[in-house]
Design brief:
411 residues
Length: 411
């Protein structure tokens, strides 16, 4: 799948809010963002799960989806991602199925092992066991969400004749996707179960090569388990901010990029900007971690990703709060006006019509001018005939009454 006219767009909302900011208002603004991009025609929004660090302050993507669903009309809403190693799969499946019904099928189920090691340590877990837990949980979750009965016993959960009490709203089951960052675990899990993949590992040239290798692993695992995976369900997460000019975009992101870079240098295991980097903006742009510029720059960035990966289904923008709220809203408006339609085939016919008409202007304009001239000549001929008839005394020309001649008009 290389045709870009089927490309969909969404956001991946951690969210990222510095500890200096009012958390209540920050979460409210996240909900406003979902409403905003829903009205602009974005296709998806995914919400994270984190429990420590003070920066990514969404503890329950399911709760966020419930609120966001009431403030939106058509956008699809996903857990981005539910940390499977922290939840009993029966309870998690039941919650997700309820959201499937409440949102009338707009809910998507993104899963992963758990991103922050500090979350795992707080629950007495070690990160080395989280990916195995994710695999075990998926082995239970997929059949449960399909309405099947599951019997399974592991060292951390047991299922005995477990079956959800509701059939899925989305048949045969809601859409699922597995996060793929650095290790092959996510790609292999996606292929094993024939579900989508969320690539969160970056968009530098080196990272794109790693993403391609993980997709190969996904297809390989799918073949080994008699499953089929579709590039349309492969999502690439990237950083973007656009404005009217590149200079304005660069100025905008200095509002929040330094705090963002500091957080990733100190808390998560994935370092986006290396510690000690003097100019984080120069680093993320020169290394193709992010595009900060104009809509044309965003288009070129996405085309590079499409070419480098040989095709995928969804571009997810990291909702990063690098810019202030006004500039952030403007960014999404410009993406919706100029970037998204470029990749969804919404502009091709309009350009074709414009170019065709412009190329044939020498045919259309003289024809229009001739029509005006002909009608003017006919008018002058009729006027001349009436005048001649009046002069000969054969008829009396009718003169319309003025607005003041009411009695005359009435007669």
């Amino acid at each position: 799948m290389t045709a870009s006219d089927s490309l969909r767009f969404g956001i991946f909302l951690g969210p990222f809010h510095p500890p200096s900011e009012n958390p209540t208002l920050a979460l409210e603004r996240d909900l406003e963002l979902v409403s905003h991009i829903d009205a602009l025609g974005y296709d998806e929004a995914w919400f994270g799960e984190h429990h420590s660090g003070g920066f990514e302050i969404s503890a329950s993507p399911e709760v966020f989806i419930a609120f966001a669903a009431n403030r939106s009309q058509r956008i699809r809403l996903g857990t981005g991602v539910s940390s499977l190693s922290y939840h009993h799969p029966f309870i998690l499946a039941d919650r997700m199925l309820q959201l499937d019904h409440l949102t009338r099928g707009r809910t998507m189920f993104g899963v992963g092992p758990g991103a922050l090691p500090s979350d795992a340590f707080a629950m007495g877990l070690h990160p080395e066991g989280q990916r195995q837990r994710m695999q075990q949980a998926l082995d239970a979750l997929v059949p449960l969400l399909r309405g099947e009965t599951v019997n399974m016993e592991t060292d951390w959960f047991t299922l005995k004749d477990a079956k959800l009490q509701l059939q899925p709203y989305t048949r045969p089951m809601m859409e699922m996707a597995v996060a793929s960052v650095r290790s092959p675990a996510g790609a292999q899990a996606a292929g094993r179960h024939g579900i989508g993949m969320l690539s969160i590992g970056g968009t530098s040239d080196e990272s794109v090569s790693a993403q391609v290798e993980n997709w190969r692993r996904c297809e390989e695992a799918a073949g080994e388990h008699d499953k089929v995976v579709d590039r349309r369900n492969w999502r690439i997460v990237t950083f973007m901010h656009v404005a009217e000019t590149a200079a304005q975009a660069r100025a905008n992101v200095m509002f929040g990029l330094p705090a963002f870079a500091d957080y990733f240098a100190k808390v998560p295991p994935s370092v986006i900007v290396p510690p000690g980097t003097r100019d984080p903006l120069d680093y993320v742009t020169s290394n193709r971690v992010a595009v900060v510029g104009t809509p044309d720059d965003a288009i070129a960035h996405i085309e590079r990703l499409l070419e480098g990966t040989k095709g995928f289904g969804v571009v997810l923008e990291f909702a990063n709060n690098w810019a202030n709220w006004e500039a952030t809203r403007r960014h999404y408006e410009m993406m919706a006006r100029y970037v998204i339609p470029h990749f969804q085939g919404a502009l091709a016919v309009r350009h074709e019509h414009f170019d065709t008409i412009a190329a044939n202007r020498e045919i259309y304009v003289p024809a229009a001018n001739a029509a005006v001239s002909d009608e003017t000549e006919r008018y002058e001929e009729r006027r001349s005939g009436i005048a001649q008839t009046t002069a000969d005394g054969d008829a009396t020309a009718w003169i319309p009454p003025t607005s003041g001649d009411k009695d005359t008009a009435a007669d």
